[in-house]
């Protein structure tokens, strides 16, 4: 069932994660906006169905005396994806998502990220694998932020993660996709959705990810940090749709020779 009125593109089947299908292949974060009104407006402009929330940084009911993000992006309209941003070991990540499950009435779909250090925010893969094993055994549907290493991605899939989310480049860097070859290897082997997570800077980055065959793109800073977040959210929506359409259409082969668009054969003298 699609979560909002965004139409699924012709010839596409939507994004299916853990048995649920979503119309939009763009997932967005909820942090870094100037206020909840801007969060609401940008989220609506993005057309996203899935909104990721940093449980350790954003109020979704932990503090009943403070404004709740859920007033701006209600669970009745969006799928809330709690994440473990700010966690640096498996134990903290598992505890954070268990708390999220209580706050969201048994919600199972989560995004796992275990960071290696505060400077690069690169994933700590040994701790990520450890946390993934625990969470899957505990009944969670785990989407997981990871390095762009095909072997690690396969290990996470084998554990039972419902989606792998390799970084394009460092979180918040806006550097775009630095290693399309590794992403292509992960996509080619994966039997679960592959979504680019981290590093997208502008619409062309999102389109390239989709043209490579990614199932979706998750972003926050690229929208919230733009000069006009609402306009950028619309641009990202269109870029993801265009990239997906191009992937389904099938690009022409690269060649080292010209090929005239108006062939000489059969021309009118």
Report how far the terminal alpha carbons are from each other: 57 Å
Element-by-element helix/strand order = EEEHEEHEHEHEHEHEHH
Query: Helix tally?
Result: 8
What radius of gyration results from the CA coordinates? 19 Å
Strand order of the largest sheet: 5-4-3-10-9
Strand content: 15-25%
Largest sheet: 5 strands, parallel
Overall, the morphology is globular
Summarize model confidence as the mean pLDDT.
Answer: 90
Give the number of DSSP strands: 10
Plain-language structure description:
This protein has 269 residues and is an alpha/beta fold. Helix content is 35%, strand content 15%. Strands 5-4-3-10-9 form a five-stranded parallel β-sheet. A three-stranded parallel β-sheet has the order 6-7-8, with helices on one face. Strand 6, helix 3 and strand 7 form a beta-alpha-beta unit. Helix 1 packs parallel to helix 8, helix 3 runs parallel beside helix 4 and helix 6 packs parallel to helix 8. The longest helix has 21 residues. The chain is globular.
Describe, in short, the structure shown.
By secondary structure, the chain is of the alpha/beta class.
Set out the fold topology.
Layout (H helix, E strand, L loop, with lengths): L14 E3 L2 E3 L3 E4 L6 H11 L3 E5 L24 E5 L6 H14 L5 E4 L12 H13 L3 E6 L3 H10 L3 E4 L13 H10 L5 E3 L5 H10 L3 E4 L1 H4 L4 H21 L20
Parallel strand pairs: 3-4, 3-10, 4-5, 6-7, 7-8, 9-10
Antiparallel strand pairs: 1-2
